[in-house]
Design goal:
The chain folds into 2 domains: about 15-85, MazG-like (Helix Hairpins); about 85-135. About 70% of the residues lie in helices and about 0% in strands. It has helices at about 20-30, 40-60, 65-85, 90-110, 120-135. Helix 1 (about 20-30) crosses helix 3 (about 65-85) and helix 4 (about 90-110) crosses helix 5 (about 120-135). The termini are far apart.
C-alpha cells in the first residue's frame, strides 16, 4: 500500500525562478503561517549561528557538510534581505558589477606599472582595491 503524496504549502512556490528568489518565496510562504522571526535580531542571530557552523566545518574538513552549511548561510542571508525588503538577486547583481568594476581598475593600474596580477603582491592589490573603492565615493 502506498501512502498518498504529501502536499505542502511550500509546494506553491515557483521552483523555476532563481535559487535566491525561490528561497525568498519559500520564506514568504512560511512567514504567512507565523513561522518567522518577529524582529531582525533573530535573523542576525541565525546568520551568526550559520557562520559559526561553516567555521566548524572548516575544521572538520568534510566538504559535503561544508557545502550544506554554506547553503544554510546563504539561505539565512537571503532571509535577511527579505526582512529588509531587498531583492537578493538584484543585490548580488549589483555586487558582481561592483566587483567587476573594481577588479578592472586593479588590472589597468597593474598593467600601467608594467606588471601582471600574478607578480603583484597581495598588499599592492589590496591598496589598489581600496583606491578603486575610494573613486566610487
Amino acid at each position: 500500500m502506498t501512502l498518498p503524496a504529501h502536499t505542502s504549502l511550500l509546494d506553491s512556490a515557483n521552483k523555476s525562478q532563481s535559487s535566491l528568489r525561490y528561497a525568498v518565496a519559500l520564506q514568504q510562504i512560511a512567514a504567512q503561517t507565523g513561522f518567522d522571526w518577529p524582529t531582525i535580531d533573530g535573523v542576525f542571530a541565525k546568520i551568526h549561528e550559520e557562520l559559526d557552523e561553516v567555521a566548524a566545518e572548516l575544521v572538520d574538513g568534510n566538504t559535503a557538510r561544508l557545502q550544506e552549511e554554506i547553503g544554510d548561510l546563504l539561505f539565512a542571508i537571503t532571509n535577511l534581505a527579505r526582512h529588509l525588503q531587498v531583492d537578493p538577486e538584484r543585490a548580488i547583481e549589483q555586487a558582481n558589477a561592483k566587483f567587476l568594476h573594481r577588479f578592472a581598475y586593479i588590472e589597468k593600474q597593474i598593467a600601467a606599472q608594467g606588471k601582471s596580477l600574478e607578480t603583484a603582491s597581495l598588499d599592492e592589490l589590496d591598496r589598489l582595491w581600496d583606491a578603486a573603492k575610494g573613486l566610487e565615493k
